[in-house]
Design a protein that fits this description.
This protein folds into 2 domains: 350 residues, TIM Barrel (Alpha-Beta Barrel), CATH 3.20.20.140; 97 residues, uronate isomerase, domain 2, chain A, CATH 1.10.2020.10. 50% of the residues lie in helices and 6% in strands. The strands form 3 sheets. The chain has a 4-stranded parallel β-sheet, covered by helices on one side. It is globular, with a radius of gyration of 22 Å.
Length: 464
Amino acid sequence: MALLHEDRLFPADEAARAISRRLYEGIKDLPIVSPHGHTQARWFARNEPFPNPVKLFVQPDHYVFRMLYSQGITMEMLEIGEEEIEEPREVWRIFAAHYYLFRGTPTRLWLDYAFQELFGLTERLNEKNAELYYDTIAAKLQTPEFLPRALYERFGIEVLATTDSPLDALADHEAVRSSGWSGRIIPTFRPDPVVDPEHPGFHDNVRALGALTGEDTLSWKGYLRALARRRDYFKELGATATDHGHPTALTEDLGDTSAAALYEQVIKGGAYAADLEIFRGQMLTEMARMSLEDGLVMQIHPGSVRNHNALIHAKYGRDMGADIPAPTNYVEALRPLLNRFGNERKLSVILFTLDETTYSRELAPLAGHYPCLKLGPPWWFQDSPEGMRRFRETATETAGFYNTVGFNDDTRAFLSIPARHDVARRIDAGFLGRLVAEHRLDEDEAKELAWELTVGLVRNAYRL
């Protein structure tokens, strides 16, 4: 008995399902374009075996351990944050015994796909077969076919973007490029550590940026030159995009004198919280200006209250599954940036949201008007079958398909990449199949759109 049904995620209506099958057949084997994610260039630079199933499926995936944590399984029991897992089989047993918690979630779809398609495991994971799963996966991870570069090629990945600090020397990216391997691993410029004054170590980071670039980053002009130089270096190593994870979508357009005065206040540590938010907003506009100059695509994904669980943040640091969505305003918040750059055809700004209420009310109308704006795919908590359907239903009527950017997987879990893309392709085929069945599209148009939603739009939007 297979874990996966061949018609999974297609419409229940027979006519729409038949059309969806045909559309999916035309796109299921297209290359994977992954322009936004959090995998590690080090994997491909070193090309070493993944150590064990826990390191691959549990430890890097906050979708997995946040669900387990919500049911009282401690981070210590899962050895989260440990460089070396002391009891990997015990961690795996805990995971397997609680696999039922993932019923009905996208995580279950991703994991079942990897278990069946990559490891040939077709019996649902549980406590009784945990050892069989562990041994099967562990054995295959030691074979050449499961080395990172071999998996990249097996998955049919065309390009894979990582997310990188401006202070990162990008040595692993340089190693990949100089290795002679044909895989395309590119960095993405994520300046949060040096543009968010509330980021841990901000002041030290700004000084490190100066040391790295030879610029006086304690002055406003030197600080901006340093950021531009790092962007140029990222471009040299293949970057096509920047990524900005601000608490809100606020933008500002201060005059140069006011911006310099605000920066001086921030650097001296005397700014109030409201001033820090204004500074972040000014930096989004500065990043848009730089993107217009150097051609890097700009991604803005606000609306996450980061590290909501103070205990987990104190013990384990950032990005431990405790980020929570919050309401986000885009119409007024983006106005300063859009007043300055919104009509620039050469600028490309991709907007993401964790606030689904903004799709039809704010984001689709904005992207349906301003030439510089595109809508990113359903992200994070909305990266799910129902979230994808809601996005298509609420955004398409106003923004159309061509003001969106296809799909990106945004994952730290490498083996989930093909599964996530397969889910997106099936949902899009299903949505298009329903439009054809309802005589709102002809099937030849749906075929063209299926290709665009899979590879065309993402290549164009990210300039790949």
